[in-house]
Amino acid sequence: MNVALEIPRPEAHPDIERILFTEEEIRARVSEVAAEISRDYAGRRVTLIAVLRGSVFFLTDLARALTVPARIDFLAISPFTPRPEPGVVRIIKDLEESIEGEDVLLVEDVVDTGLTLRYLLRSLTSRLPRSLAACAFLDKTPRRLVDVPIRYRCFEIPDRFVVGYGLDYHQLYRNLRYVGVVKSEVFRG
Amino acid sequence: MANLATTEVRSGPPLSSAPPTFAHPSEEMFAQMMDFYGIDWQYEPRTFPTEWDAAGNTIEAFSPDFYLPEMDLYVELTFMKQSLTRHKNRKLKRMKELYPDVNIRVFYQKDIEDLIFKLGK
To answer: Measured in Å, how far apart are chain A's first and last C-alpha atoms?
Structure first.
């Protein structure tokens, strides 16, 4: 497993303190994970489900690197709003297709506390897929609150706020080709 | 290892029924977050003695803010700056020495802010 080496690298966006993973490193690692998935699902069709919006770039690269037939679908969940009434988490954009009897791979941009992934895995399990597994682009284990099974992961990262390759800060930086740490003065305003 | 001295165990009911009195607004927010994800919680259900006097009386103890039964995990929320948490960290370290089988996670102010920011997107 690849672990982030926090070494300063040139050519980062002015708001980026350091690059954790370059475009080349991401491409290479996504290819490795895709090869692993292709081996595990050989002879089968896999349904990739991406959680909007952070997983979009990872999903598209991963899907194109697979050698097994793949369907793609998307879902989104309600955001947590503490006041006045937080309510409960729910799916606000549901799948377009049934996953009953399908081999499903849930594609996440980053797993930190595990709360969201736990909810999604439970929700998708109730739809009776043939199999269900999780694939994370980034795994932020220092922040884990609940144990969640992650079968595939591209990178483990330290407890830092990262952006790029789909991950945002106030909806910006998603289109960066690399993953980087935002400068604290940007993050803290 | 010391005996685990327990206080009365209080359940974490849904906030809508009988919410406990939280010591800090961020604790209430954390409870709301657990409710949001359907995670059962208890607020300060247990006190762990960490220092005793010569007569065996407890002179220092630690009461983690939350207990998450499903994960068998205690959660302590700290609202001081990380640089000012030396005393609490010492107590935590002592607690881990005395109760090595107890799982506890510490969330600092920054962790909580990051968490709420991320989940609120």
So the answer is: 34
Does the annotation count A109 as an active-site position? no
Mind listing the pLDDT tens digit for each residue in A49-101?
Answer: 999 999 999 999 999 999 999 999 999 998 887 766 768 898 999 999 999 99
Helix extents (H) in A53-167: 56-65, 115-125
Q: Which two tokens stand for residue A11?
A: 């050519």
Domain that holds residue B69: 25-120
The answer to whether residue A55 neighbours chain B at the CB level (below 8 Å) is no
Q: Which one from A61, A103, A109, A112 is the annotated catalytic residue? A: A112
Which residues in chain B are contacts of A161 at CB distance < 8 A? 114
User: Between 3.40.50.720, 3.40.50.970, 3.40.50.2020, 2.70.40.10, what CATH number should domain A45-160 receive?
Assistant: 3.40.50.2020
Distance CA A165, CA A176 (A): 6
Full-model pTM: 0.80
> Cα separation of A6 and A137, whole Å?
17
Report CA-CA distances (Å) from B26 to B32, B73, B79, B108.
Answer: 10, 18, 8, 11
Structural contact between residues A158 and A164, judged by C-beta atoms closer than 8 angstroms: no
Q: Which residues, at least 6 apart from A106, have a Cβ–Cβ distance to it below 8 Å?
A: A49, A51, A117, A120, A121, A124, A132, A133, A134, A135
Tens of pLDDT, residues A122-135: 999 999 999 999 99
* Contact between chains at A82 and B120 (C-beta distance less than 8 A): yes
Question: Any chain A CB within 8 A of the CB of B82?
Answer: no
- List of chain A residues whose C-beta atoms are within 8 Å of the C-beta of residue B35: 86, 88
The ipTM of this complex is 0.75
